Amino acid sequence: MAVVNQKGGVGKTTVVLGLASAASAGGVATLVVDLDPQGNATTGLGVFDAGSGIEQLLTEDNAGGLAAVVRASAWSSEVGPPPLLVPSSPGLAVLEPQLASDPLGAQGRLAAALADGVGSDHQLVLIDCPPSLGLLTVNALFAADLILVVTEPGVWAVDGVARMLQTIERIRLRRSDDRPGLVGIAVNRLGRTRDGRYWNEQLEEAYPGRCLPPVRLRAAVAEAAAHSLPIHALGRRPGAVEAAAEFEVLLDRIPWSGSGSRTDSESPTPGSPA
Ligand SMILES: Nc1ncnc2c1ncn2[C@@H]1O[C@H](COP(=O)(O)OP(=O)(O)OP(=O)(O)O)[C@@H](O)[C@H]1O
Ligand SMILES: [Mg+2]
After folding, report:
1. Torsions phi, psi for 220 (to 5 deg)
2. Helix, strand or coil for residue 121?
3. Is the per-residue pLDDT at 31 higher than 90?
4. Smaller CB count within 10 Å for the chain: N or C?
5. What is the DSSP string of 198-230?
6. pTM
7. CA 6 to centroid of ligand 1, rounded, Å
8. Residue 268: pLDDT above 50?
């Protein structure tokens, strides 16, 4: 599942890490693929000496494929089985324009690597995307079965989500397998202000039935990321239990094969707001 929004700072990485934490607590073997040159998911998982992981995977001569670049995260096993990671590194930003000029086509690199490499040790694969609709995000959209759009309840959110859904629809038309399916829109950093409520209502009106249970604004969420800890390990901090529960609810809504949730193949294709 790719976690996307071309808008920066809305909480894509936070949601990836929260879902990875919930998956870990639930005993789900999870692989996080960090497709963002900023590498926030990589450091959020406690890896600070990333090497060339995702760059190696996306370059043509990717010797060893996925297995060669997967490494353990630094989360402890106290919560549950720690996620595995394909780390990012800043060189990825330089690679993106190089890939774009590759005459062999560069949109399907990640899809090919994951198709060859995802095995039973990866029940759930979460792809953290950069804040753009560039080639890296496009690679994620071609590789993923499912998409989670993350947004904040703020001005431009409805327009930003519309643009993202249009892109997903264009990719779906290009793929032969009627994928990726939209899991929904995760509204992150919902505060208890009138403004937050207003923009959340605007999103629910624009995308009826597509908005997932929200993740609220809580200091514990930012704190977990800053300390490279799973939110489930912050037990006694105020708000940590509530935040962990919100990510569990979100995880439950992902129709990945082991979850027992319904698949969304019958749900309407993503499109413009109703
Ligand atoms: N629910 C939340 N409660 C409190 N802080 C949050 C929450 N969600 C995100 N944040 C904070 O907001 C900031 C941006 O979040 P994050 O890095 O996850 O966004 P992003 O969409 O991945 O950004 P980018 O587009 O740069 O990759 C971070 O400092 C994060 O800790
Ligand atoms: Mg991010």
Report:
1. -60, -30
2. coil
3. yes
4. C
5. HHHHHHHHHSTTTBPPPEE--HHHHHHHHTT--
6. 0.93
7. 14
8. no
Give 174-179 contacts, CB < 8 A, sequence gap 24+. Answer: 174/142, 175/142, 178/265, 179/144, 179/145, 179/146
Q: Measured between alpha carbons, how far is residue 118 from residues 26, 31, 34, 125, 182 in Å?
A: 20, 9, 15, 8, 21
For domain 2-252, give the fold: Rossmann fold (3.40.50)
Q: Is 181 helix (H, G, I), strand (E, B) or coil?
A: strand
* Cα of 96 from ligand 2 centre, angstroms: 17
Is the confidence at residue 63, as pLDDT, over 70?
A: no
CB–CB of 118/66 below 8 Å?
yes
Ligand 1 mutation target, pool 14, 32, 149, 190, most atoms within 8 A of CB: 14
Which whole number is the average pLDDT over 91-97? Answer: 89
What residue segments make up the domains of the chain, in order of their start?
Answer: 2-252
